[in-house]
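Limitations

Structures in this collection are predictions, not experimental determinations, and the ligand pose is part of the prediction. Treat each record accordingly. The example that follows, with flavin mononucleotide as the small molecule, is included so readers can see exactly what is and is not provided: the inputs are given verbatim, and the output is the predicted complex.
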Amino acid sequence: MNRRNFIKITGLGIGTAALGSTVVGCSDVTPTDNFGWNGPDPAEQDIRMKVLAYAILCPNPHNKQPWIINLTGSHSFDLYVDPERLLPATDPFYRQIHIGQGTFLETLAIAASGLGHEASIDYFPQGMYSNTELLDKPVASIELIERPGITPDPLFAQLLIRHSNKREYDNRSLSQTETETLQSFHGKNNNHALSIVSSAEAKQHFEQILTDAMQIEVGDKGRDHETIAMFRFNEDEVKQHRDGFSVAQAGLSGLKKVFVENFILSRESTEKDPTSFGEQAVTMTQKAAESTATFAWITTTGNSRLDQVIVGREYCRINLKTTAMGLAQHPMSQVLQEYPEMLPLQARFKETFGIDKGDTVQMLFRLGRAEATPHGPRRLVTQIINS
Ligand SMILES: Cc1cc2nc3c(=O)[nH]c(=O)nc-3n(C[C@H](O)[C@H](O)[C@H](O)COP(=O)(O)O)c2cc1C
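Predicted complex:
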């Protein structure tokens, strides 16, 4: 893997190279490995590998899995952003990619506690780079310290269950108790505030804003290709790449799924003309929003790389907590994206919800109830280790 190709962001519109990501991946799947979701191999003795087998299950943008691990000692390793797994058209400043570093760190810290270890995490040990660049420096150094008496984080039990649920929900809002439970779980953190709203008025705004945002997102060649590159059109593509997402994660199953995969969607025709793929995305977004009564977001006053990583940790904890509460959760990030065409709608969204102009909404997601969807695939742990 090449980690040298780091990028100083000099402008927008550099996303058309994203189709290249369709050619990576490997096909050494065994029928029993469940694409990572069985957790570590029971025969695995190396604590680093065990913890990493959980960490790769974290939520991350487009299931890109943008991580590289450098092993630094028998109980330690460094985490880097994989510069070949970015989303430059939709995430031009790699903000979401850094949130996906935080989700990884949180998942590994929880896993470590469940395996009798403390994960000591030193952020940006070689210095933090600015939020407009990506440098060849670790996001974190991690040391796993054996602590036989450690209390496992209760969220450990949710690591193999959690997922982003992209189905339509049942239009019931969270109860006041559920909302308060989540608010007090997140805590009063003025720098990283969690807002949860369930009013009819807010729902109406979100239906409009989220649908408009998807409408803006589609129809641009670079952005379309970036999404299509991560969309898995059939099981063979899933097995080959072990990343991305498919209709299964939107809740399509059985004959319907087989029909869509064989007769409606094909990579060849979609890449040639993404118009109907885009239209589908807008319709699905609208239906998802219409079926939802509770929306939530996490805002930060600063927007440093560390803020983004910490938000990732917090978002991941909330997702694990809602899993424990039997709730469904789904990020809807389009309106938060920083390419120029989205900025006027983003400003309108902030104004509508009284969010300070200077604050950054890092994550926006819906909450509700829905049947679980199948897990998105993960690569092998060995594929993220730098060798
Ligand atoms: C920063 C971030 C942004 C995301 N944005 C979206 C989004 O806009 N739409 C969506 O359907 N999922 C979004 N997701 C969810 C990912 O698609 C999901 O985490 C990934 O496919 C892995 O699936 P899982 O969470 O079910 O394990 C986002 C996740 C993260 C961490």
